[in-house]
Amino acid sequence: MAAATSSTSLSLLPSSSRQRASAHAAPNCLNVAGLRSRAPFARRLGFAGVAVDPLVAHVAARISNVASAGKGPRGVVSMAKKSVGDLSASDLKGKKVFVRADLNVPLDDNQNITDDTRVRAAIPTIKHLINNGAKVILSSHLGRPKGVTPKFSLKPLVPRLSELLGITVQKADDCIGEEVEKMVASLPEGGVLLLENVRFYKEEEKNDPEFAKKLASLADLYVNDAFGTAHRAHASTEGVTKYLKPSVAGFLLQKELDYLVGAIANPKRPFAAIVGGSKVSSKIGVIESLLEKCDILLLGGGMIFTFYKAKGLSVGSSLVEEDKLDLATSLLAKAKAKGVSLLLPSDVVIADKFAPDANSKVVPSSAIPDGWMGLDIGPDSVKTFSDALGTTKTVIWNGPMGVFEFDKFAVGTEAIAKKLAELSKSGVTTIIGGGDSVAAVEKVGVADVMSHISTGGGASLELLEGKELPGVLALDEATPVAV
């Protein structure tokens, strides 16, 4: 394969109808000229360069410890940011590496971890560093503390980190200061020191330069593996990069970007997006962005009633955002103009009150009686949605179909989760784009078969909207990959 003289650029901007048709006919063909013309937008996202199947091995080598066997195929992109996988053993041996991870895990009243997903997701990058003789200085936040707050200490994470890494992780009582410096100085090669909650300092979220400099002074280089906070310009996610070189992406951060940008910018088609949740207002940007890219858009959750009312239907006492009726109308018109198949549920499960034990029944979406509220999509809708998804090659899902916290109204959400699991097993790329959708696939027990499950709620949404992620933009540029 000949090396390109210049890198192509990956864009999230809309493709023309002709390009869509071409992509559907030959998904591995790229309109390079078209992609180059949209380079500025892609660069703002921190990407340049696209790659297809011949480069799978290149990217897979970087994230081999992250990928799981048996998952569906994935779109592949080459990051324009340097990765920890680009650093050699000589770059890492004996070096102090400041690793910003996202260890913001839920704890019960006894300070026990109730979901260690984010801890497990951070392990591949840490293991790679310690296996290459680096001295790892691990940083994270937990919760939203106001100053030093004992219940938000990272101390409960030490046993689980130690177990997963197979070494004894040390814990500092602070994240800066003389005592921390002494602990760093005595850290052996292949050792890990967990700093205390970085948000115990208000300077963290203010991205205070002096605070960032103090954090950076502990290390020789920087790795950001905290996708969940990459949309925030904080001292430990953006500020430290001004003082530490190289500053590179960890395996998890890279994998998130590969999927959420790569698979959507150049998806195997037909490409479907499923958007749910309670309010249109929280998903406006995502819906508008996906309308530029997808072939099929399925809407569920509480937001559908705003669309129903905008179409002149009675919604009973269902949730409606009155100030978003015009927006709903315009989104429907936009979908039609762009040739996107936008599907609203044809029937809904309604209840006489918002409660797990409410009386319920299934009615057409056009026949919701007064005093009743919609809390889930109905069986006809599940079938229609499943049939539509059965035609796809790439699916991204963000937001539940109903109030899935109540078992009686979780049927629609669980059916979609099971359908995506079925599709993933048959080779469809399935991406769970953060938030409650992750909880849904975990609840149903099908998380392991999805192609990718995002660890970042807010960051996932902002990336899908095409927004800049400060934590990504701050990282070093990579050497372009030949395509």
Put simply, the count of helices is 19
What's the total count of β strands? 17
Mean pLDDT: 83
Helix content: 25-40%
Structural class: alpha/beta
Radius of gyration: 23 Å
- In spatial order, strands of the major sheet run 5-6-4-3-7-8
Distance between the termini: 7 Å
**Biggest sheet details:** 6 strands, parallel
- Note poorly predicted spans: 1-79
Question: Which shape, going by the Cα principal axes?
Answer: elongated
Cofactor: Mg(2+)
Subunit structure: Monomer.
GO molecular function, one term: phosphoglycerate kinase activity
Keywords: ATP-binding, Kinase, Magnesium, Nucleotide-binding, Transferase
Can you walk through the features of this model?
With 483 residues, this protein is α/β, with parallel strands linked by helices. It contains 19 helices and 17 strands. It has a six-stranded parallel β-sheet with strand order 5-6-4-3-7-8. The chain has a six-stranded parallel β-sheet with strand order 11-10-9-15-16-17, sandwiched between helices. Strand 16 (429-432), helix 17 and strand 17 (452-453) form a beta-alpha-beta unit. It is elongated.
